[in-house]
Amino acid sequence: MDNLIDELENLLEQSEENGYDYAEELQEQMENLSYNQHNINDLLYEYAITTLRMTPYQYYQLQLYIEQYGPLVTLYELAAIPGFSDEDMERLRHRLTVSGRGNTKFQWRDLLRKSRHTLWLRYGRVLERQAGYDTTRPTHYAGTPGHVCFRYIWNMNDHIVLKIAGEKDPGEQFFKGKQPYGFDFYAGSLCFKNIGLVKEAVVGDYRLNYGQGLALGSALLSGRGGGPDALRRFGTGIRAVAPCNEGDFLRGVALRMGNQQWKGSLFGGRSFGTLDNHYGADLSWQRALFRVGLRAVCHTLTDTTQEKLSHKIASSFIPNGFNVSADYQVLIKHIILFGEVGVDQNGKIAALQGANFSMTPTTKMGVLVRHYDRDFHAPLGKAFGAASTNRGESGVYLTLEQIFSRRVTANAYFDYYHLTAPSYRCDAPVACLVLGISANCQFSRNSQLDVRYTLTYKSENLTDAHYRVINTYNRHKLRVLWVNTLHPNVRLKTGIEGRFNHYPRSRLTYSGILLYQDFAWSIKKPDISLHLRMAFFDTDRYDERLYAYEDDVYYAFTIGSYYYKGIRGYIVLRYKYKWLSVWLRVSRTEYLDRKVISSGLNQIDRPHKTEVRAQIMFSL
């Protein structure tokens, strides 16, 4: 879980640097972390790799063991399978069960008898009065300051899943005025899984993720700093969603059929909030050591002359385009080779090639080379890269993981890339370099220390010049995190983070620092948990902002952005009784160097901001 949080923090920072908002998809990744126990003898490849964080080598050895000796009768048999350590067994035993194969066979009589219902309702708001709610102003919000959302999930034995969600943003009306039907945004999907040859069929909202993401990609949790095992993207295929925010997803129909070797998919839908229509297919073939896939997607633009379409709906690409791509993955002893190449309607090419090496039992290495033509265009693509779109970029990425002992591990990475076209906040082609190193020390079962350092050489526009000047700067980031479990019910986490931006042209250096202390307490009877944080931060500018993961209500995702000077604290209280769970979260930020917060309609004429969030969930 800690490694996942690290990746989310890095992606959130990257999103603000390249102008792309990952927030909705980051939240979805958190929501898709399934903590239900799965049968190890019927483990799907996608679930094993993406959720359980197994390596392809471990998954292959597991399937080979089952073929030779039959289904596992106990999880402790993992000790006899190559590639599984004692730490892996401890990590997986809470996520897996052992039973015979075929127990998940579809049976109509089990749909209602084994169905599960989940409904959660959430309300939140800022307590201080914001300028947008002052009705005496010429412009103001028409609605109330509360944020309201809900999600309902009906899971019928994991074969039929219905999801419905709705959201009302702060400032919008609710069941009146321009919103007579309540929420301003509704989403939902109906998904059929593992019914005969039908592996998955979705009607409604869904996301697509195939190959390494050049033509169809939405995976986020593979990228810079995650180690060799996190370098590759995994084609999870179709994923039915019901997002609570107006994010980047398709609304239409999708179908996936096949068996353990062959899989084929068809899909068609429109990107939400745009005029962009997408239709395509994917075909893949997989053996224990080899996998290859081929996909094609066509992009069309709805006729904009239709008067019923809103003028606010925009398009993100030229009409009538397509993408074709092919990917592969092969396991050769302890070497994993993978890659993908794609082409668009104009013949522009994008390609990436990667490899993972297990040089010794304690040393792993990963390398990835990428090249995306300047004018390559893939509206649904999202492969490995520094920019928000896979175009105008070439680079090489190296990562190394070393296990020094059972208590000390280290990871280093190197990313050199060249942006051949103007990018976010940079109007000229530039070369960039990122170096990172981290070490984890497990002093005991209850105490560990994590240290991370990152050095970045980047360029951006010099905004205060009379004409556009490209300014190169160096960014240093250091984080020290100590986690100590004082008692099975008490956990402490202490964090220190620093960020320094140095501009050689002007010989100026700006800095930022963040100190925080977390306290977590929980008991089982009654089932109550409490999370507290107190943080102090001081940054010279917004550009020196620092990020830290914050505990929140269930199904919510918060990574705090700390900037300027102040103190921030929060408290999260949870109570669970059988089928009922209740959360309450109160956070407050007190700024010490200003008397007014934010601007425009969100302006608060006080030096503090208090947010309250409450959630209730029913699970039957």
Q: Report strand %.
A: over 45%
- Stretches with pLDDT under 50, minimum 5 residues: 16-21, 307-312
Radius of gyration: 25 Å
Mean pLDDT over the residues: 85
Distance between the termini: 26 Å
Shape, please? Answer: globular
List how many beta strands DSSP finds: 29
Helix tally?
Answer: 6
Tell me roughly what share of residues is in helical segments.
under 10%
Structural class by secondary-structure content:
mainly beta
Describe this structure in words.
This protein is mainly beta and 620 residues long. 9% of the residues lie in helices and 50% in strands. It contains 6 helices and 29 strands. It has a 24-stranded antiparallel beta barrel. Strands 1-2 form a two-stranded parallel sheet. Strands 25-26 form a two-stranded antiparallel ribbon. The longest helix has 17 residues, at 2-18. The protein is globular and about 70 Å long.
